[in-house]
DNA sequence: TGCAATCATTAAAGCGGTTTAATTAAACCG
DNA sequence: CGGTTTAATTAAACCGCTTTAATGATTGCA
């Protein structure tokens, strides 16, 4: 690759001049500009992004730390998130450095990334990395709340408790009292949050919570989310009475629907179904169309991007944003 | 941020020594190593990735050029592709620089990216960028074939013609003669390829091709892929006779299924359905489970990654890889 | 015509690392 | 013990660009 020196030499100017021709930060006379550009073209010269970054201490790149499970297909949630981040960052001229590498134990191996800021997904409890970025003065925004909470850290998150509460209240006010609750895995904070939200709704309406049959996704038992829905429905159908089922995701709901077809249960006449998240974004396309909560992962990502960009301009920026989830009533629920 | 100089000074050694402690490219005595590391820790020093990249001319980053439509949700195909690229590259210690920025008209603005190689999606006809990367000596691999074909350019691609041919042959040998073919948009090469593959199957089996009613996706007419399937099915059901429908994607098939339910058409008893691509990866989870072609976008991505990594080691590498698509027969088809 | 102001250009000093060639110190050996 | 290896360290050059301060060349104005 030709360098700026080659161009400067051949065009008979200094490299400072060539630099200015390309960066346009200083006026260069027309004849000189023309000569430089033509020489550059002839040599196939393009400014070296790395060298430039080193000099100006800016890369126009945003890092996205995204853990990826080993077996790991990226979840739909992550994808939509990513989409939001991309759109927002691209709009402001930033590119995304996807970082799904597992972290090196060896601190010696750790190097500061070629990024101007970082968005981090699903931070862990007492996440070491957060301090490290702060130490390096690299602006950071989390998607998901920091644990422990820290008012100096910017993040965006859903309010899962509120979301489950809304769903619970909706079903209760529609006359449903007993339901099957297909929550996600037992060990996740989101499950706890949802559970307490649901309890709150029952409490508020004065209905005893033992009307709710709670289940959890278990990887070993359920091969796919759909299996989880299908098997739970088949298993619980006769065992306990319920007029509604609250499902982890739309994929799980797909399994429930399959079971209802086999069982001859009509949705929504005999059974109402609500999905707590719209992963595959298929609610609109299912039969019947699925009442579900719109988690707006994309908004989450976009907002994270927005805040980060702001923070890269003004490092003192701190913003903590809870994105409201929307319950969208479609055809899979009815009031009793 | 502390620099290598700060560390060197405080530890009372030269920067070359500090460099070696971190890069481990040269043995440094234990006492010195310890001293340097402790000083580094104290100062919160981490090697600067950009400076290092400039010096060693290597970034361990792979660029992914991925056009993103303006309205644009990323398609499932792209996502699975991306997933494949990520997995393969991560495995070898590379990170991904996502580049969805529209290209600058102004060549002046174009700078060589901080990447060691590039994967490019959906290259355009006579794509300027390809030459540019070659000029810059940056290894590149395409996903999708270059147009015009060029035996010096590495790429991976599906064989859409063969794929449609297989589907056509499968249906014909199962006794289906007339079908509804919901192809993708008319102006895409993939549509042409599929059409000619399908024709070939008919020719081979000696069945006149006018038994096939071909439709195309039209953005203005069909709000969603599902609408495309639903509307086409509703419209054509009485107009022309057919015992099978070949659908663009699984989303489209979802619309077809909805229509059959409303029309009281049983799948697969009265109608067989095959999807030409498994975008939402929901074939398994639909009712009935959908017979579909597994495009293996993820494999495409992973293979592109593999070839690129190879090419970064040995720039003379050229590989052109056609990934076979698999027709997976599930429950939505039957032989007559 | 002389002096200040303006404009275009350049030389050189960074940016923060790596690496080569030279130097010093320690170890080995007959 | 002198001479040769070997190992550890360093000084300085370099990677390719930006930017500051200095230098000339022009222009404006009285």
UniProtKB/TrEMBL annotation, chains A, B:
Domain HTH lacI-type intervals: 2-56
One Pfam family linked to the record: LacI
Keywords for this protein: DNA-binding, Transcription, Transcription regulation
Annotated coiled-coil segments of the chain: none
Sample GO molecular function, one term: DNA-binding transcription factor activity
InterPro entries reported in the protein's UniProt record: HTH_LacI (IPR000843), LacI/GalR-like_sensor (IPR046335), Lambda_DNA-bd_dom_sf (IPR010982), Peripla_BP_I (IPR028082)
PANTHER family per UniProt: HTH-TYPE TRANSCRIPTIONAL REGULATOR GALS (PTHR30146:SF109), LACI-RELATED TRANSCRIPTIONAL REPRESSOR (PTHR30146)
Identification of the protein by name: LacI family DNA-binding transcriptional regulator
Species of origin: Paenibacillus silvestris
């Amino acid at each position: 690759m030709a360098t700026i020196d080659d161009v400067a030499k051949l065009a008979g100017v200094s490299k400072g001049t060539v630099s200015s021709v390309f960066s346009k930060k200083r006026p260069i006379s027309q004849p000189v500009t023309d000569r430089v550009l033509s020489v550059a073209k002839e040599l196939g010269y393009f400014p070296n992004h790395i060298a430039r970054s080193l000099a100006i201490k800016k890369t126009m790149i945003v890092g996205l730390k995204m853990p990826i499970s080993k077996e790991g297909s990226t979840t739909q949630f992550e994808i939509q998130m990513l989409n939001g981040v991309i759109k927002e960052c691209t709009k402001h001229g930033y590119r995304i450095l996807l970082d799904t590498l597992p972290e090196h134990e060896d601190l010696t191996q750790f190097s500061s990334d070629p990024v101007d800021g970082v968005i981090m997904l699903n931070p862990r409890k007492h996440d070491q990395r957060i301090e490290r970025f702060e130490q390096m003065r690299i602006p950071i925004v989390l998607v998901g709340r920091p644990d422990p909470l820290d008012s100096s850290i910017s993040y965006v998150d859903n309010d899962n408790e509120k979301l489950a509460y809304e769903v619970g209240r909706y079903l209760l006010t529609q006359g449903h009292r007993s339901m099957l609750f297909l929550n996600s895995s037992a060990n996740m904070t989101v499950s706890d949050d949802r559970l307490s939200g649901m309890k709150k709704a029952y409490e508020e309406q004065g209905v005893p919570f033992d009307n709710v049959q709670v289940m959890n996704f278990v990887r070993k038992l359920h091969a796919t989310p759909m299996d989880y829905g299908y098997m739970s429905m088949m298993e619980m159908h006769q065992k306990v009475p319920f007029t509604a089922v609250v499902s982890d995701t739309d994929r799980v709901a797909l399994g429930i629907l399959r079971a209802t077809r086999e069982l001859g249960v009509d949705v929504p006449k005999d059974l109402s179904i609500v999905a707590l998240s719209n992963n595959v974004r298929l609610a609109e396309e299912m039969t019947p169309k699925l009442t579900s909560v719109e988690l707006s992962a994309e908004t989450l990502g976009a907002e994270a991007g927005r805040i980060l960009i702001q923070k890269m301009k003004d490092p003192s920026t701190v913003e903590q944003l809870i994105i409201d989830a929307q319950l969208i009533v479609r055809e899979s629920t009815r009031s009793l």
